[in-house]
Fold this protein.
Amino acid sequence: MHELAKNFTPVAPPQIIENSYSDDQHSRLLKVVRENGPWPLILAENFKTPEEVIATTSGTLPEGVTLTWDMIGLNPVFRGYLARGGTCFYPEIEDCYYNSRYLDLVRGYWDCQYAEPETFLFNIQGPTPIGGPPHLDGTVFRGMTMENTPLWLLLTMAKSCLFNHWRSKKAQVISWYYKGQIGGGFNCWPDGPAGAPLQIQAPMWGRAVVVENEMMFHHGQATGPQSLRKPAGMDISSTFGADPNDPTGWQIETFGQINQHIPAEEMRFLVHWGARLFKDLGDFKRTYDHSDDISADQAINMLIGDMQTRGVQFEVPTDPLNDNNFVGLLARVYDIGGPQNIPADAVD
């Protein structure tokens, strides 16, 4: 395992809570999802090319190989955003986003004076294979966030450990709603990728974890019957939405063709609330007066300089943010590996 991987432990152990949303809040969240879909694949939401996916995971690609989406494998997990920054997109769930209970939880988790809601999103799926290799969520830095920087670059910066001076303090409250009997839980490595995994097992209904997922490897367990985990005919444009012929059911659709109908009891709903933390007023002011920001140009130049110091042979790109070969190079150089002690997949 790469020496840098040992740095990836959260600021504190995960804290499990129950009844993360009230029944009324959960009902309103689900109503928003049903009425405003269909929703895209996570890969389609976050990445423009397959090379960007490889840059965010602990994997490498042989030189000269041209990636396709088919080679990546399209896990049928879909995503939508409910809020970003200070704005909740749906007034009927504002109490879920501007959430005093959650703000208290993450302030305590980090031992910080201040917190602000930053992200509110959901993952939704039916029967699904294990959620890919264990991964890290998107770190943000002063001056570089999800709003102005590709996710692959943020994750590459995090894995390089060159940018910790600018790294923001973040925490999440991640909630699950899944009543199925096969898999559907969550695996994570709070003691680092060489440590033993922590497993949060389903069925769970309103169970949540307070955590720092940017610094902890994690992934979702396989979910639902094995025979239904790989719907036929999907591509990067596939979507997940309400089944118009079933008041509680769902469906996956691709180019007007239905790939799969999903009954309510096999739907797994993950709600991801995220906040940014500030140790004190000075920490807050440093972020918002932009007195100590980093820019994409500075970050790219630091990565290039680090690779040159390491003796990596490459041609400096003219458009590094959109150069697939350069993205692939960064993925290889800053591949920190990941957990090898992955629990067995859930089976029927």
